[in-house]
Amino acid sequence: MIHEVDEGLRRLLGESGLEASGVEVVFDAPTRDWAARRTGPTVCVFLYDIREDAARRGSGGGEVHDEDGYVVARRTPPRWFELTYLVTAWASRPQDEHRLLSQVLATLVATEVLPRRLLTGTLAELGLTVGVETAGVGAEGPPASDVWSALGGELKASLGVRVSAPLAGVSRVSGPPVTEGLVVRSAARREGGGTTAGRRLRYTGIADPGAEGFTGPRERPAAPARRRRRGDRQP
């Protein structure tokens, strides 16, 4: 799921015109060594914190159907996680960096939910909302200054972006659908040895695809006429 969120963000920023203008979007850690090797204008989207949103943890499960509509698996409910990114712009001059960062900010603040056309893999299959919050106040996770200290670099203008995304539940394969009717066998024996053949149950109006030579629903035979007993009154 994490790499699918990365791809969604990359596509979102790419549609803003960054790729067309020759700006590279990467997900590397912006360390000093990385900054020294950089050769062109770059927007760095660094993931530094992952936390589960326990308040959204659900119970129960869902069904997975095949093309014919049969249940082939059962899936536990998805669990939601918040992914926090540090977004920075890198160029030869601070003015160019600020221009890039402004373009990124305009794109992200206008996006509260990643569009479905940008989702891939399990995020696209689940069809759930992937929320985006940019430069939010009071977001959990380490502050940007602590992140820069851990990376060994100097403090730099950056955007905090938090994405709330579902992690698909575990799927368990279900048994195949029933295609044969119910067969009842008794312990009675025929004269001369041997047991009686099994009798397949059939019900009015219900197809029995397992019956040999089956052509359609069978009607239940009519009940025999009631035999009159001695003493019964004549009508």
Blueprint (SSEs and pairs):
Layout: H1 2-15, E1 24-26, H2 32-37, E2 42-52, E3 62-65, E4 71-75, E5 79-90, H3 94-109, H4 121-126, E6 131-134, H5 144-151, E7 159-167, E8 171-173, E9 183-184, E10 199-200
Parallel strand pairs: 1-2
Antiparallel strand pairs: 2-5, 3-4, 4-8, 5-7, 6-7, 9-10
Please, could you describe this protein's structure?
With 235 residues, the protein is of the alpha+beta class. It has one domain (2-172). Helix content is 21%, strand content 23%. It has five helices and ten strands. It has helices at residues 2-15, 32-37, 94-109, 121-126, 144-151; strands spanning 24-26, 42-52, 62-65, 71-75, 79-90, 131-134, 159-167, 171-173, 183-184, 199-200. The strands form three sheets. The protein has a five-stranded mixed sheet. The chain has a three-stranded antiparallel sheet with strand order 3-4-8, with no helix packed on it. It has a two-stranded antiparallel sheet with strand order 9-10. A hairpin with a 5-residue loop joins strand 3 and strand 4. The longest helix has 16 residues, at 94-109. The termini are far apart. Mean pLDDT is 80; it is low at 216-221. Residues 189-235 are annotated as: Disordered. This is Pvc16 N-terminal domain-containing protein.
